[in-house]
Amino acid sequence: MEATSTISLEDALRDPLLVKQPVETLQRFAKRLTKLQAKDSENVRAAKIGIQGGFTVDFLSELMPLFLRHRGLHATIRNAPYGAFQTEILDASSAFWEFNADLVFLLPTSRDLQHLPQPTSDEKTIDALVKAELRIWHLLWERLEMPVVQFTIAPGSTRSLGEADGLYPGGELHYIREVNRRLVREAPSHVSFVDTERLAIQVGPGWHDERLYRLAKQPFSMEALPTIANALAATAAAALGLSRKALILDLDNTLWGGEIGDSGLDGIALGPETAEGESFVAFQKYLKALSCRGIVLCVCSKNNERIAREPFENHGAMILRLEDFAEFCANFDDKASNIRAIAKKLNLGLDAFVFLDDSPVECALVRENLPHVWTLQLAGDPSGFASLLDCAMAFPTRHLSAEDVNRTESYRKLGEVNSGMQQATDIDSFLQGLSPTAVIESVREDTIERISQLIGKTNQFKLNPTTYSTAEIRDLADHVLAIRFKDRLQDYGIVAVAVTDPEAAEGVLTIRNWVMSCRVFSRRLEFLTFELFSERACALNLPRLRLEYRDSGRNGLVGELLTKLGFERGMSEEEFLSTPTDIKGTPPHYIERIGTWPQSFEYSSNKK
Amino acid sequence: MNGTSMDQILERLTNVFQDVFDDGSIVLTENSTADDIEEWDSLNQIKIILACEKEFDIKLNARDINTLENVGAMLEHLRKLGV
């Protein structure tokens, strides 16, 4: 009887998401691999791996050959006997040294800590304890000259000091974190770490298994093993120079929603206006971050090249730019041939590539023709794309070094934002530090929907219940003000809209309705908007602004604002009037303005 | 609660062993012990127990686990748990 796995060992080894298989399936694959490797490992790089762990490593060790083979390594493994993982290394005549490992996994747990603090220990005491804790590790690192992949100390399953445990000196979790910080800082460069605190978050509730620890001295559950094995294998691969280096991306339904060839620039889902569009922006940001740390991005799309380039050149919400790609390949040839050509041009082996596509057909084709490429099919909601790619750990790094990271935009930007936040001593300098920008948008096919929708669905910052259909917006295009808001952190999309009506006979510029999304409250965008109203009124020679404000029970904050903007009740209960030239002292908004209002409109030019 | 016969439990237990050892040729009887299956060591014992918990939807105490060293004891214990 064949065991109940749905995929073969061969397919599993080519699947970037091997880690997602159930642990029982992986244990069977590992068994089969051991039998197979005896005769079939000639073209695979071999390595002897010593596993030195402070717990029973047997179950983990059983999976390691599978996860290492997954990354192109034929591993011969030796486990240190339980309880001897440190002493073996210190004893030059031990079986560990006889084995002559090419790489060592050094896997302590919190039970290996020797200098735990008391709840009353102060910072100075902790410092001394941490220093003492580090001694043994310096001794071990000195002896080990081969690459070492080491666990940071994982937090325990209980916190006797409650929340204080991780936050104050004297807490065990606090101590563990201090030790980890020191370990990482003081380790020589041939030692790389696996961040177990992060692994625990990834695994979730199954990370700790107290019963299994009592039974077999394995502190985590079997279900945690694939995630652990994957992280260890990835870090080992990085240490041995086996990381993948390049990512080839499809375009339609991979970088944006929909088909650019069918729907055109305005029709694809990309940008903060919809949940789907926002997900693709988030995915692009993740890809951009990969690119910034040196992962080579390429495009391989079945499209007309001119059309495929258009979103990169002309879509406002695009994060990735043409210059982020080493190769841009859009044609109607089969993708396997295109990928081969890309590999050749970049002078990289096929095993350096990951290929991402939403199409099962394209993925199957590449998988079959180019088994060395890691093909990852994007499935399900695009909000999950980034974490899907992330959990494959296709591009592991040992630690950040100058050669891994080219200090490009995102790092620089991030640094600037951080320094801005640190320096911000009051709200004004904070707002200023965010470099806010207001882009005055025209009424166009790709904005009209959002403009009409924003007026309809806004509840809080809204003058009155009047709504406008897209047809009405189109007719009123000359008089519609739409503002897109950005800062150095993100593009919020169109977040403020007003519909105006110049009434020359009465000498007023009427604001029929005015809405603003709650996403940009307290960014002072309302003051910039008011400025625009005032300028417009002035240009039309209209001395006053008029609007109709109706209290809906939810839009009270607009009422308060109107007073600040000098509006006073007019003829009726709901009519308010202001003379903008009389207004002094609205707070500075620091918002840079791009574009003018009104600008030359597509629709208005047709009309006249 | 004893809806399942001993034979049916034995059949399911056999499947568990075949999966754990990835060996479809394993045949269990009530008298099978660790001596009959070459790889049945203390670590595989843990795997067998964990696989049984999943298969029969039960949770065993550490104290019980140490006593389940042969198939007969396992069957008896499973029956006691109302499998």
Distance between the termini of chain B: 7 Å
> How many separate domains make up the residues of chain B?
1
In what range is the share of β-strand residues of chain B? under 5%
Mean pLDDT of chain B: 86
For this structure, what is the CATH homologous superfamily of chain B? ACP-like
The biggest chain-chain interface is: A-B, 18 and 14 residues
Tally of helical runs of chain A: 24
The overall average pLDDT of chain A, rounded, is 89
Identify low-pLDDT runs of chain B.
none
The CATH topology of chain B is given as Non-ribosomal Peptide Synthetase Peptidyl Carrier Protein, Chain A
In the CATH hierarchy, the third-tier topology of the largest domain in chain A is known as Rossmann fold
Order of helical and strand elements of chain B? HHHH
Radius of gyration of chain B: 12 Å
Find the CATH superfamily of the largest domain in chain A: SGNH hydrolase
**CATH architectural type of chain B:** Orthogonal Bundle
Tell me the structural class of chain B. Answer: mainly alpha
Major pleated sheet of chain A: 9 strands, mixed
Q: Write down the domain tally of chain A.
A: 3
Strand content of chain A: 15-25%
- What level of helicity do the residues of chain B show? 40-55%
What is the molecular shape of chain B?
A: globular
